Amino acid sequence: MALPDTHVTMAHGGGGRAMRDLIAQVFTSAFHPPGTEDQARLMTAALQQPGARLAFTTDSYVVTPLEFPGGNIGKLAVCGTVNDLAVGGARPLWLSAAFIIEEGCEIALLRRIVASMAEEAALAGVSIVTGDTKVVERGKGDGVFITTAGIGVIPPDCDIGAAHIRPGDVVLVNGSLGDHGATILAARGDLALSVDLVSDCAGLGHLMQAALAAAPGLTAARDLTRGGLASALNEMAAEAGLSVELDESALPLRPEVAGMCEILGLDPLYLANEGRLVLFCPQGQADAALAAMRTLPEGAGAVAIGRAHAGHPGRVTLRTRFGGARMVDMLVGDQLPRIC
């Protein structure tokens, strides 16, 4: 039987028939969890390998607007959690999804969000196996908030992290920078800007596995979300105890993003991405890693943008087109809130 309501009401969070109908017809019909118990019971042969390790991550998503060119909050939640696992070398396997829904939220919108989550999970090869729903009073939420957790398996021969970065390692990114942050800013409609932008939101599990296969000496990776490339590199350089120099002429920026940043006084190095990662790998394997990433749609724009150096721990600099250099510090504050 179809849901009789077009919008979420407080009854949908009350634990009774209305809530059960919402869960069955909107969530479990799309996610197909393996059971109806209060916990998911999981098994994988990958953990039987000596030395294999579990990877576990969690995140919450509060983007405004809930739907934007290139995705919605549901796609964002799955891709973001998959990417957090993938950059540690893990093969993502299972996700949980908890929803806080504001009274009055359109059920049609909720269905679109859930459908995007199911689609992205299938593309990433993960299962959404457990979850929760809560409904809050009108005016005490923002449509929908989503919290996800993810579990993956790191194979025994994989050990990557910022502490392993070495002087001479080449810095790679898989495509243009700042697309998500610029898209969200434009989608809010607060500025009289006419730009054709699409979020880079994408799952990067397959890309990361391709890079690892092609460049087994890959030392570290990080996905570029809030704070953008600049914040990720500052964190990694500090943990590695070395410095990083970027080449401004090598940075991949769409003209629309560069133009918007120039008009608004924003720095694209700090804009959020949701389908981009930064990799460090030995110089002798950089070309192989780039070639492997470019075979996949989400890595078609992969380029080398800099190098790690000994000394000046934690310092990130940008070599400008004019031959000078400037410091690229950690982001202070937030250029654009509620982006993911």
Task: Summarize the structure in words.
With 340 residues, the protein is an alpha+beta fold. It folds into 2 domains: 10-154, 60s Ribosomal Protein L30, Chain: A, CATH 3.30.1330.10; 162-327, Phosphoribosyl-aminoimidazole Synthetase, Chain A, domain 2 (Alpha-Beta Complex), CATH 3.90.650.10. Helix content is 30%, strand content 23%. The protein has helices at 17-31, 73-86, 107-124, 179-187, 205-214, 228-240, 255-264, 283-294; strands at 53-61, 67-68, 71-72, 91-102, 127-136, 144-154, 170-173, 220-223, 243-247, 277-281, 303-309, 316-319, 325-327. The strands form 3 sheets. Strands 8-10-7-11-9-12-13 form a 7-stranded mixed beta sheet. A hairpin with a 2-residue loop joins strand 2 (67-68) and strand 3. It starts with 16 loop residues before the first helix and ends in a 13-residue tail after the last strand.
Oligomeric state, counting identical vs distinct chains: single chain
CATH superfamily of the largest domain: PurM-like C-terminal domain
First and last CA, distance: 34 Å
Query: What order do the strands of the largest sheet run in, or round the barrel if closed?
Result: 8-10-7-11-9-12-13
CATH topology of the largest domain: Phosphoribosyl-aminoimidazole Synthetase, Chain A, domain 2
Percentage of residues assigned to helices? 25-40%
Provide the domain count: 2
Instruction: Note the beta-strand portion.
Output: 15-25%
